[in-house]
């Protein structure tokens, strides 16, 4: 295929590098920062730079912030060839799939919103990595009118660059689940490092501290926007977390050993059940009918 990647940051840059490393597809890049595009070209990560004509591509991967995805597709869809598949990698879906699906359909273009579950605590093109997606999960949110052949082609594309487990779901369920599995973890990590004793942690910390704080170095521009785009779902998860934390605080304040033991055991059993489900999960999980 001939593939265009729009936005050469961590994810977009990694898509380009993975395509060159593991496939024979032609790879072209587009970025608002010309220097980044030139760097990708000079490093042979892309085969050419695209500025305003998006015709002739089989697949266009839009790796931009959600609010910019809407604008970019609406401004450029008229230059795309009929039959082209456009996929985004937005961390929050909201109304993007429905709105852009309709816009693209008017021009004979297919639209499919996806979410590669892979990343790093660092961001930008220089942090991109051809192996970023190896063994990772890939979420697809097709609409009822999305041709199955389009979904299958995007899934196959993702498999070629390293993804090994695929989830088919609705945009609404995607946002609900991402608030819990991703966004809440980032909020907790950011809040956790604000303890005043962090200045003394050197020599006291082990794996648990580093696991909890790794993602506190997140890109504040991107995550501020993602949190606000999904605020209702994230608020629901924060309320649940605060309720659970309060339960631990209350039994500690009372020195209630039995209740504390029960809370810890419940957490352990819940995690063990989760690990068992994960081990037994199929490579393709269809949640399209889930509410």
Give structural notes.
- The chain is of the alpha/beta class and 291 residues long.
- Helices cover 49% and strands 14% of the residues.
- It is built from ten helices and nine strands.
- Strands 3-2-1-4-5-6-7-8-9 form a nine-stranded mixed beta sheet, with helices on both faces.
- Strand 7, helix 5 and strand 8 form a beta-alpha-beta unit.
- Helix 3 runs parallel beside helix 4.
- It is globular.
Shape summary: globular
How many β-strands, per DSSP?
9
Uncertain parts: none
Beta-strand residue percentage: 5-15%
Q: Strand order within the widest sheet?
A: 3-2-1-4-5-6-7-8-9
Largest sheet: 9 strands, mixed
Mean pLDDT: 95
Give the CA-CA distance, first to last residue: 36 Å
Report the order of strands and helices: EHEHEEHEHEEHEHHHHHE
Q: Determine the number of helices (DSSP H or I, runs of at least 4 residues).
A: 10
Helix-residue proportion: 40-55%
Rg from Cα: 21 Å
Give me the secondary-structure category.
alpha/beta
Structural descriptors:
single chain; 291 residues; alpha/beta; nine-stranded mixed beta sheet; 49% helix
Quick structural gist:
With 291 residues, the protein is an alpha/beta fold. Helices cover 49% and strands 14% of the residues.
């Amino acid at each position: 295929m001939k593939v265009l990647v729009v936005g050469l940051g961590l994810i977009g840059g990694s898509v380009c590098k993975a395509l060159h490393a593991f496939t024979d597809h032609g790879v072209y890049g587009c970025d608002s920062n010309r220097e980044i595009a030139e760097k990708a070209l000079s490093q042979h990560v892309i085969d050419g730079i695209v500025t305003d004509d998006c015709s002739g591509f089989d697949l266009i991967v839009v790796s931009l912030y959600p609010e910019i995805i809407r604008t970019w597709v609406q401004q450029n869809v008229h230059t795309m060839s009929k039959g082209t598949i456009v996929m985004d990698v937005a961390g929050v879906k909201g109304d993007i799939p429905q709105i852009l699906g309709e816009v693209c359909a008017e021009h004979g273009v297919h639209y499919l919103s996806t979410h590669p579950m892979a990343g790093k605590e660092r961001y930008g093109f220089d942090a991109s990595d051809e192996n970023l997606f190896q063994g990772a999960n890939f979420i697809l949110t097709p609409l009822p009118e999305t041709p199955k052949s389009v979904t299958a082609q995007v899934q196959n594309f993702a498999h070629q660059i390293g993804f090994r487990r695929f989830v088919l779901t609705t945009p609404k369920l995607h946002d609900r689940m991402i608030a819990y599995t991703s966004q809440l973890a980032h909020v907790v990590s950011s809040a956790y490092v604000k303890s005043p004793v962090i200045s003394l942690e050197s020599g006291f910390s082990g794996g648990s501290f580093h696991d909890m704080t790794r993602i506190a170095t997140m890109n504040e521009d991107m995550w501020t926007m993602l949190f606000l785009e999904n605020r209702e779902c994230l608020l629901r998860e924060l309320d649940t977390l605060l309720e659970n934390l309060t339960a631990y605080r209350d039994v500690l304040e009372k020195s209630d050993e039995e209740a504390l033991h029960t809370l810890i055991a419940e957490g352990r059993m819940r995690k063990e059940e989760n690990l068992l489900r994960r081990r037994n999960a199929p490579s393709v999980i269809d949640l399209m009918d889930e509410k």
